[in-house]
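Technical note accompanying the year-one report. For the benefit of new consortium partners, we illustrate the data format agreed upon in the data management plan: each record pairs a sequence with a structure-token string. No post-processing was applied to the example shown here.
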Amino acid sequence: MGDKAFGIDPKTIRQFALDIKDVVDLGVEVAVVVGGGNIFRGLQAADAGVDRVSGDYMGMLATVMNGVALQNAAEQVGVDTRLISAIQMREIAEPFIPKRAKRHLEKGRLVIFASGTGNPYFTTDSGAALRASEISADVVIKGTKVNGIFEEDPMKNPAAKRYSQVTFSDVIQHNLGVMDMTAFTLCQENAMPIVVFNMNQPGNLLRVVKGEKIGTLVNMDKSTFYE
């Protein structure tokens, strides 16, 4: 939503598409899981008098809207893209079939996963961890609005120190809140590294993929330090 309070900002979506194109042009296979919080969050449902299950499905549909927007922006900058939805809507997106998704990636296409896991009570993080495991991804790269994982909320305490690298055990011990526990446990069990970085700074995605030390890396190694 960029600087807006709600909805889709075309400039922001285009910048994301350009950042992704830079990575795809390197020959890297890229799959993107989109959320829908800029349009509707399932947890908002209770405030609107909607039950949790219905609210979660509404949130999943919001991710499809974002997926269509990102697909359109990516194709406008020359990236061959396939939108895949966990909730079947064949006129808009392909159904999720792991082997087909992998084949798209092998052909150099950007794959966008929408609708989360297709089930209520699961977050976008869980959808990302699940899809990453299913397509045998090398790493989960989580784009946020802050520069990584901090000892405290940097929005509340600007002086909070950022971790450059932490282990899965560190995250649990210090309750760092990288992602919801279901998603985090799935990554841990599959030894799937996680990089948390600021996606709102143009070029950051490419820097992460090239191995520059920005954001925070979560992995199995015992090497934790502040930057």
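Partners are asked to follow this layout when depositing records. The chain has two domains: 1-137, 138-227.
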